[in-house]
Design goal:
mainly alpha, 2 domains, 14 helices, elongated, coiled coil, Ist1, IST1-like, Ist1p
Length: 321
């Protein structure tokens, strides 16, 4: 459709005509709705509930459309009151921006020819790019209520039942929605809200019993400490050969009777020892003791000292533990 050149006088005339046409159309829609409501009341009185529900959906849409017409009429009145801003300012003033964008958006969706003429004049004034932004509703420049009222959608079942109850009450018809219908309507209307809430809420999992976990950990630690720190007596007896180190015969030089009975450290041979002396290996003093508590052979005169006897008694005491 070719764009008309902007003419302020023509825009003012078309705004006045649009306001009058909007009022007339609202009156016409209201009168038609009253007649349709009476017909729906007759359907309810004759127990034709399903037909009444279908008919009332059309009344709901008409009520939405009438509300949209009222908003458009207010915007036309606003542009008439602030027409000087349109004439004097080249760009759209922020105080009338929503009204201009909403009229450009809603004119093709209305049944009023005069609004189409107003739309053409506004596009000629503010340009094609401004009109495209209004049609696409960029930056939410269009009134949200107009978008919702002019949107074609199936009415909610809960709203349908409420409309029927009000119509029955107005025309003194003994009708009320069944409890099953009300429950199903409530569930259908709230299902989407509940799903959104459940998806946004965080999910919680059951926490474990911390006392039980601590007791299990303490038991496990106790068993591991017992197994590592206190070996049994049988293992000590079986590994007695490996426990006693191989040391030369004779007590250590720095050994005293108050010592704890630890095995003496090996004595290194002197530095000037010959190769023949190095080949001679003395047997360990306390290795390979039998279970009858036999004492090692007294092959060397050094083992008869009191200090050696004390060491032997201590090693035997360790074996018996």
């Amino acid at each position: 459709m070719p764009l008309n050149t902007y003419n302020p006088n023509r825009l003012k005339v078309q705004l006045k005509l649009a306001i009058n046409r909007l009022k007339l159309l609202q009156q016409k829609k209201n009168s038609i709705n009253k007649q349709q409501r009476k017909e729906i009341a007759n359907l309810l009185e004759n127990s034709k509930t399903e037909s009444a529900k279908i008919r009332v959906e059309g009344i709901i849409r008409e009520d939405y459309f009438i509300e949209a017409l009222e908003i458009l009429e207010l915007y036309c009145d606003l542009l008439m009151a602030r027409f000087g801003l349109i004439e004097q300012i080249k760009h759209c003033d922020p105080t009338i921006s929503e009204a201009v964008n909403t009229l450009i958006y809603a004119a093709p969706r209305s049944e009023i020819k005069e609004l189409g003429q107003v739309r053409d004049q506004l596009i000629g004034k503010y340009g094609k790019e401004f009109a495209l932004n209004a049609i696409d509703n960029k930056d939410d420049c269009v009134n949200e209520r107009i978008i919702q009222k002019l949107m074609f959608s199936t009415p909610d079942p809960f709203l349908v039942n409420r409309y029927l109850e009000e119509i029955a009450k107005t025309y003194n018809v003994n009708w009320k929605a069944d409890d099953i219908d009300l429950i199903s309507a409530d569930l259908s209307s709230n299902s989407q809200v509940k799903n959104n809430k459940s998806s946004s809420e965080p999910t919680y999992t059951a926490l474990p019993d911390m006392d039980l976990l601590m007791s299990l950990n303490n038991d496990a630690k106790g068993e591991s400490n017992q197994s590592t720190s206190t070996p049994n007596s049988a293992s000590i007896l079986d590994n007695s050969d490996n426990i006693l180190p191989d040391v030369p015969i004779g007590p250590p030089k720095n050994h005293s009777k108050n010592s704890l009975g630890a095995p003496p450290s090996p004595i290194l041979p002197p530095a000037n020892q010959s190769d023949e002396d190095k080949d001679i290996v003395n047997p360990p003093p306390y290795s390979k003791l039998d279970n009858n508590n036999e004492k090692p052979s007294s092959g060397n005169s050094k083992m008869t000292t009191d200090e050696d006897d004390e060491l032997i008694r201590r090693f035997e005491a360790l074996k018996k533990r």
